[in-house]
Structures are given as structure tokens and as C-alpha cells.
């Protein structure tokens, strides 16, 4: 048997679709049954391992990351060699049965993979992903932020408000009084060895124990948490609040390819403290921050000027920062790496 070195691609593919009001009075994506989600996730090559819900949002923990479902919004975040774009047609059909014929926003994003050559079609490269998405949404736009030849972050989104997709799917401009919406992601690599060693079965038995030990439960208080510790290592958690806010953290602790992702839609007018707390909890060697905010969100006006500062400012070097204006969203992208220690 060839000695193939163990590797897991922690970097996730993140797909988010928001629909306009349903044409059916009882239309709600949460009416989609567990069986229907399981069938859909077969196309992605992952399974549901756990589930929590409240009046605003359903949160599924998956064998490869997470899925969140609220009335009009669906979020799928999957890592490894999963194929999330392959479930799109089925998702749109299920949504249509709930009266969702009009898409208001679509985002597909991911960081560059550590090992792109192990991905499966249509994820063998961003160009292939865009070509696949274009067959469903012919006028979507694709972007690459950061450095194309080093670390970067890819995004596919609609930028034209009056865009038409499949004949029965219309993408319309979001009115300025749309619900506030914002998403922050922090994607971390080269993490502290000692901190990562906690996310193993040799140290803890359950997700609950390591959630408390690591301080994950302190990052955003009053979250109802669903957590899972993989065997022999690896960790995933979803947290939800009654108002529809969520957080999700996924951890690949293996030293050679350690990766941690944090994502939340929590409404804040400044994310500096939250970013600092996440960074202190996991101690990465480098990380990327992305913040999306629509015109109604608290973050919209302030994020362009956002200068991310830390008490240990001198330890971080910002290698990139870009801001983009889309028709209904602002996007901030920033990349940091640990600066070399100063010899005094
Ligand atoms: C699903 S978790 C979290 C992935 C996430 N995208 C991240 O941020 O790293 C992946 C970690 O769990 C480990 N793992 C153990 N069993 C697994 C399984 N059955 N499926 C997926 N990952 C598993 C992997 O080696 C890896 O360390």
C-alpha cells in the first residue's frame, strides 16, 4: 500500500442564497423536510450529524461544517472535498415549491485551497466554479481579493440588480429599507500548537467540554450551542440566538495544515473587539477577515474606515486590505500575518 500522507482541506466553500418574499402565504424554507435536506446533501457529499433550532433559524451541524436555514435565507458552508454547487438546482426547486421564485442575493466564496488538486469537479478551480454558476445564473460576477499568486479569497455574486437567472428566477434590487444584514468571517491558519491540541479525542471526550475549555462559549454570549468533537481530532460548532443571529466555528487542528474558521451575522457597528477575541482564542499565524454589510446594517457606514487594531498591534502586519461597493452591500477584505518578533 502506498504511504499517502494524511491531509484534510479545512478551507470551506460558502454558499448563501436569499430569496425575496414568497408568493405562498405559508412559504418558508424551514418547511423543507429533514429527508429533503438529506437528499440534497448527498449531492454535496456530506451528512447531517446534529441539529438545533429556535423561532428564527434552523442550524445543522454537518460531517463537513454547517448549514443554516431561516425563512428566506439558506447558508451552506462545507469543507474537505465536498461539492456544494452540485446541490444548487435541487435547492432552487425546493425553494420554488415554497413560493420562492425571486432571488435577492447570492454569494459563493472561499479562500484559496491548500491542496486544490484534490478537489472534485466543479471545484477543481475558481474558473470551473464560475463556469458552473454561470450556467444557472448567467450574469453573476466573479472577483478575487488578495494576491492571486499567494493568499486570496474568491467571490461570486450578483452585482446587477435587475439580473435575470433561470426563466422562473428573477434577481431584483434590494430596497434600501431591507432587513439589516451583515456577515463577518475570520479564516485562520498556522494556529498555536498547544491550543489546537485541545481539539482532539485524546484530550476531551465531548464537544461541550472543549467548547468551555477553549473559551469558545465566551466569544459571543447567550448563544445556544451545538458542538461536536471528531475522532481522532477536529471540531465543529453552531450557535444561535432567538433574534436569528448565528455563529459557527470549524477547526482542523492537525499541525501540518491547521485551519480554523469563524463566521457570524451578529449585528455590531464595530468588529474590532470581536476580531481580537477570536484571534486571542485561537492564536493564528495568519488570518483573513471579510465583512459584508448591507445599507441597513449598523456596520455599513463604519466598516470602510475600519482599522483593525489589537492591543498587541506590533505583532500583526496587515498584508492586504480592499473595500468593494456592490449594489446593496459593502465588502471589506483584510489579510494579516504575524510580524517577526522585534529584538529589543
Ligand atoms: C469537520 S472538521 C472542521 C472543518 C472545517 N472546515 C475547518 O475549519 O477546519 C474537520 C476536522 O475534523 C477531522 N475529522 C475527523 N473525522 C472526520 C469526518 N468524519 N469528517 C470530516 N472531518 C473529520 C479532520 O481531520 C479535520 O481535522
List keywords for this structure.
344 residues; S-adenosylmethionine decarboxylase; 2 domains; nine-stranded mixed beta sheet; globular; S-AdoMet_deCO2ase_CS; polyamine biosynthesis; autocatalytic cleavage; S-adenosyl-L-methionine
Written account of the structure:
This protein has 344 residues and is α+β, with helices and mostly antiparallel strands. It has 2 domains: 155 residues, S-adenosylmethionine decarboxylase; 168 residues, S-adenosylmethionine decarboxylase (4-Layer Sandwich). It contains 7 helices and 17 strands. Strands 1, 2, 3, 4, 5, 6, 7, 8 and 9 form a 9-stranded mixed β-sheet that branches. An 8-stranded antiparallel β-sheet has the order 11-12-13-14-10-15-17-16, covered by helices on one side. The structure holds S-adenosylmethionine. The site of S-adenosylmethionine (SAM) has 20 residues, from strand 13 and strand 14.
Amino acid at each position: 500500500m502506498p504511504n499517502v500522507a494524511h491531509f484534510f482541506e479545512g478551507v470551506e466553500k460558502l454558499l448563501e442564497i436569499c430569496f425575496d418574499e414568497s408568493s405562498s402565504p405559508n412559504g418558508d424554507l424551514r418547511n423543507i423536510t429533514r429527508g429533503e435536506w438529506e437528499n440534497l446533501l448527498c449531492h454535496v457529499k456530506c451528512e447531517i450529524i446534529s441539529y438545533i433550532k429556535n423561532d428564527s433559524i434552523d442550524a445543522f451541524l454537518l460531517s463537513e461544517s454547517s448549514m443554516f436555514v431561516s425563512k428566506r435565507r439558506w447558508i451552506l458552508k462545507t469543507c474537505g472535498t465536498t461539492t456544494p454547487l452540485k446541490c444548487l438546482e435541487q435547492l432552487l426547486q425546493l425553494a420554488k415549491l415554497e413560493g420562492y421564485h425571486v432571488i435577492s442575493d447570492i454569494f459563493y466564496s472561499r479562500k484559496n485551497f491548500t491542496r486544490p488538486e484534490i478537489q472534485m469537479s466543479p471545484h477543481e478551480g475558481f474558473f470551473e466554479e464560475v463556469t458552473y454558476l454561470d450556467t444557472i445564473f448567467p450574469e453573476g460576477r466573479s472577483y478575487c481579493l488578495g494576491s492571486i499568486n499567494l493568499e486570496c479569497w474568491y467571490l461570486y455574486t450578483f452585482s446587477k440588480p435587475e439580473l435575470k437567472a433561470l426563466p422562473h428566477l428573477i434577481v431584483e434590487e434590494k430596497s434600501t429599507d431591507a432587513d439589516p444584514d451583515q456577515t463577518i468571517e475570520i479564516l485562520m491558519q498556522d494556529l498555536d500548537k498547544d491550543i489546537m491540541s485541545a481539539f482532539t479525542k485524546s484530550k476531551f471526550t465531548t464537544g461541550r467540554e472543549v467548547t468551555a475549555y477553549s473559551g469558545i462559549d465566551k466569544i459571543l454570549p447567550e448563544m445556544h450551542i451545538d458542538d461536536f468533537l471528531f475522532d481522532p481530532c477536529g471540531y465543529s460548532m453552531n450557535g444561535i440566538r432567538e433574534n436569528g443571529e448565528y455563529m459557527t466555528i470549524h477547526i482542523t487542528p492537525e499541525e501540518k495544515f491547521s485551519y480554523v474558521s469563524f463566521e457570524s451575522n451578529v449585528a455590531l457597528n464595530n468588529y474590532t473587539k470581536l476580531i481580537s477575541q477570536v484571534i486571542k482564542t485561537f492564536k493564528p499565524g495568519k488570518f483573513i477577515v471579510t465583512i459584508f454589510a448591507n445599507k441597513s446594517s449598523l456596520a455599513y457606514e463604519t466598516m470602510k474606515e475600519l482599522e483593525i487594531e489589537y492591543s498587541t498591534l506590533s505583532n500583526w502586519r496587515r498584508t492586504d486590505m480592499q473595500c468593494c461597493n456592490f449594489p446593496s452591500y459593502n465588502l471589506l477584505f483584510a489579510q494579516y500575518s504575524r510580524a517577526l518578533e522585534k529584538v529589543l
